[in-house]
Design brief:
By secondary structure, the chain is of the alpha+beta class. It has 2 helices and 5 strands; from the N terminus they run ααβββββ. The chain has a 3-stranded antiparallel sheet, with helices on one face. Strands 3-4 form a two-stranded antiparallel ribbon.
Length: 145
């Protein structure tokens, strides 16, 4: 009984099949992992920015000062995560006059490019907005001067 016979010209076909599988499955998988990592990094940056901005605004003495510290806190939180904060959407509201015992509500949103290519960035306008909201209470006993 003879063993399996090779057909002429099949030498190296396993290598070709492996490369095809790699291109068809592994390359898109790496792209999806890149998008998921961007989403996670954006979610961490947005939640940190909302939390820190709320904390700093609650310690402010005036609405003008609160506006400045909210912007600064968002910039720092985004830069800590390696993200440019210019496209972030930041909104905050507070008790009139920032009265003691009132609340400050901060909402931060940031767009994440969904369709992107390695080394090229976004290839379309498809975005997912990552949002965070934080409510901070203005301490009724803390000195704000």
């Amino acid at each position: 009984m003879a063993g399996p016979q090779r057909v002429a010209g099949e030498a190296g076909m396993a290598l070709v099949e492996t490369l095809l599988v790699a291109v068809v499955f592994i390359v898109p998988l790496i792209g999806v992992l890149g998008v998921l990592s961007d989403l996670h990094r954006g979610a961490l940056a947005v939640s940190a920015a909302a939390r820190e901005a709320g904390f700093e605004a609650a310690r402010s003495g005036s609405a003008a000062q609160a506006d400045l510290v909210v912007d600064a806190a968002v910039d720092v939180a985004f830069s800590d995560h390696g993200i440019d904060a210019r496209s972030a959407d930041v909104r905050w509201t507070g008790a009139p006059g920032l009265d003691r015992g009132g609340v400050i509500e901060v909402e931060v949103a940031y767009p994440i490019e969904v369709l992107q290519l390695p080394f090229m960035g976004g290839v379309s306008e498809s975005r997912v907005w990552v949002k965070a909201r934080h409510v901070a209470r203005i301490d009724p006993y803390m000195s704000r001067e």
